[in-house]
Amino acid sequence: MSKLRVNSFAVSIDGYGAGLMQDVENPIGIGGVALMDWFFPTRTWQHMHGHEGGETGVDDDIAAQGMAGLGAWILGRNMFGPIRGPWPDENWRGWWGDEPPYHTPVFVLTHHQRPPLRMAGGTEFHFVTGGIHAALEQARAAAGGRDIRVGGGVATIRQYLRAALIDELHLAIRPVLLGAGEALLAGIDLPALGYECVNHACGVRALHVFLRRRA
Amino acid sequence: MSKLRVNSFAVSIDGYGAGLMQDVENPIGIGGVALMDWFFPTRTWQHMHGHEGGETGVDDDIAAQGMAGLGAWILGRNMFGPIRGPWPDENWRGWWGDEPPYHTPVFVLTHHQRPPLRMAGGTEFHFVTGGIHAALEQARAAAGGRDIRVGGGVATIRQYLRAALIDELHLAIRPVLLGAGEALLAGIDLPALGYECVNHACGVRALHVFLRRRA
After folding, report:
1. Cross-chain Cβ contact B179/A192 below 8 Å
2. What is the pTM of this model?
3. Strand boundaries in chain B, DSSP class E
């Protein structure tokens, strides 16, 4: 069966997966962009955004693995945008411009209904009000046997971890301190949920750890 | 002036510097010994304990740096032993046998007075009831211009960090999950205290990060 994966999710040394006070200027919260500074320079990211070049090596290899074999994505509503509460209109179409880097169906968790949104390049945003299990069910149906990636943010990954629904979790530990933000793993007893660290690797800009849930 | 350093302090992926329920069988708490499994195999550790051999490489180089240039140590009372409350007698002489691996004066934070304890090999335990500043003052006087190392445990390092008294902090991030324990950095805003990550390196068994407080 297709796996539910988290890939290339960056955390700081002090355990934060996002900064505080997300807004349109700070999609990952205050200081949060530093978490992504291992991913932006990679060839994988550069190519995803239509640029030539970019760095190769361990960080890029791992970034590329994270994008491979995906049939659907699940995002929390705050990863889709900074708007809170009911949708004022349908003008917000995500952080990513007309052609988002997903190229698959993307299921966005929200408490507020909204019609699907078809973007260029095959990305189709579906807004799911039924919670994490409903979103996973719809993503599996759409993924055609390929894997499903939970893109984030922190609160969404924590919900899927606590439900022991994530099969594989790759974290990119960034050698930075945020000081405050959204703690990814605080208060979650991963071994009790069946998770273990099965591998680790060192990139130039991140320390990679690979967690898996025992079948 | 001599620096106050933390070296070779291991934390799990989920941020714990010790497991729960420390006792005489579990000096680092339940599961905590896994945090040390990068240090035990090193040539540095093996030689500290009178054994030949041991592994060389990045982990050993960093372990050796952590032991160099020290004139005194500071330990929390629980790192000295599992006994809580008033000392029932003077029979407990630390976890380390007759010749502890410190070979300097060691200042043990406690609320309960106890006469100094002279061990083989130059280690002398002094029990300080005046708190972290008093212990640091006594350690500086004893260190003869060399550095002072805070050995731990978690609660002691957190006290010195919150007081911004630690100059350099090396953490060995172990690719293991504890699930529960004593969180080292939770709730401490290190950037606000002047700390930044200045370097990182990858060993075979740990991912090393080096924090420093801006002068």
Report:
1. yes
2. 0.94
3. 4-12, 16-18, 70-76, 105-109, 117-118, 124-128, 147-152, 168-174, 182-183, 195-202, 207-213
